[in-house]
Structure formats: C-alpha cells, structure tokens
Design goal:
With 214 residues, this protein is α+β, with helices and mostly antiparallel strands. Helices cover 18% and strands 32% of the residues. Strands 1, 2, 3, 4, 5, 6, 7, 8, 9, 10, 11, 12 and 13 form a 13-stranded antiparallel sheet that branches. The N and C termini lie far apart (36 Å).
C-alpha cells in the first residue's frame, strides 16, 4: 500500500509546500480502527505502523515536519484535525472513480511542469513534482474521482490509502494551463514545450498532437 519512511514523509511535505519549514497534520480516521493519516493542503497518506513507531505515536495535531521526525506543535487554522476529518478524509471514499495512469509526457509551461495522465477516453494534467513525490511512496492503481484530486486504492470502491489534491486540468484533448492564462491548444498542437518525461521510453502522442516532442 505505502512504502513510506520518516524521511520520505518529509520529502512529500516539502513537495506539497513552498516554505522552509513544512508542516503535517496527523489525524485518526474516525471510521477506521488504527487508521492514522498524515495530511497537507494538497493531500494525505495512510501512515504504516513502522512510521508511527518512528514518530513516537504522536497525538492528533499539526507539527513541523523534519527529515528526522516531528518537531514542535503548530497551530494550523486552515488544516486542523477537525478540518481534515470533515473535509479531506471523505475524499478517500469518493466514488465513482475513473482509472488514470501516467503517460511519458510532461508539459513545461514556464516554471510549471505538468505530467499528462491517461484516462479512459481523454487526458488529465497534474503537477509533475507532486505526482513524482506521491508515486514514489504509494502502491496500487490510481483513480480520479473528480477533476480536482487523484486517489490510490486497491479497487474502485475500497477506501483509498492516499490522496493528492493538486490543481488539475481535465479535458480532451488536454489543455494544461496556468490560471487565467489563455488556452494552449496551439502550443500543444505544435509540440512546443511538450516532451517525454523519460527520453528512453516510447512516447505515446496524445490525441490532437501533430508533431514529435520538442
């Protein structure tokens, strides 16, 4: 389900937050015996027992996250345990779910790098650094219950063990863009800024893309 360590938890917290001292909110799932989750504004992940032991079985609350473990308690008004339980944990049970899988394509738009993900009939785009951070430590199929988040779960109905809630764009063909930017169909059709994430893999060209990657 998860391949998580304390150091990996710190890397995920840093990927999801821009400040030098990332924080994490630890919560107990009210409907899952022994289910403890670490949460950020952009997602949450089920904590394995070994990680809970390394964190000294912390009480529910928000903490500074370091590479060696949890630091001081902090007051996170916008991400309190009560908020996480009421607003974030229910995302783990959201259905129906559309399966998604990473394509080898990344789209560079200024300083924003987006990964294109395959869906049944179209594509969606997700921040590549967040996708990379989550997939290194989460096992299992990936699903998209809505265009606003992705979950990792064993099947279409089981409670997910991970959720990433970065800004997503879903369309067919894809039009990844920054907020308030004009549509990028022309750039996508020309191949500008679009490239395989791994040059050694065969790149499947999404519908509507007429040229090879630049």
């Amino acid at each position: 389900m998860t391949r998580l360590t304390v150091a990996a938890l710190h890397r995920m917290a840093k990927a999801a937050q821009t400040h030098d001292q990332p924080t994490v909110t630890i919560v107990t799932h009210p409907q899952q015996a022994g289910g403890r989750y670490a949460c950020w504004p952009d997602g949450c992940i089920l904590l394995p027992q070994v990680v809970l032991e390394d964190l000294a079985f912390p009480a529910d609350g928000s903490y500074v996250m370091t590479a060696k473990g949890l630091g001081d308690r902090v007051d996170r008004q916008g991400l309190s345990p009560a908020f996480v339980i009421a607003r974030m944990l229910p995302l783990l049970d959201t259905t129906p779910r559309t399966p998604v899988a990473a394509s080898p394509w990344r789209y560079d738009l200024g300083e924003v790098a987006l990964r294109l993900l395959h869906r049944d009939t179209d594509y969606t785009a997700v921040g590549d650094h967040l996708w990379d951070a989550w997939t290194k430590h989460l096992d299992g199929p990936t699903w998209q219950p809505s265009q606003w988040f992705i979950v990792w779960a064993a099947d279409p109905t089981t409670r997910a063990h991970g959720c990433s809630r970065p800004p997503l764009t879903a369309s067919s063909p894809p039009h990844p863009r920054k907020p308030h930017d004009p549509p990028t169909r022309a750039l996508l059709r020309s191949g500008a800024g679009l490239r395989p994430a791994d040059p050694h893999r065969h790149a499947h060209v999404p519908p509507g893309l007429d040229s090879r990657p630049g």
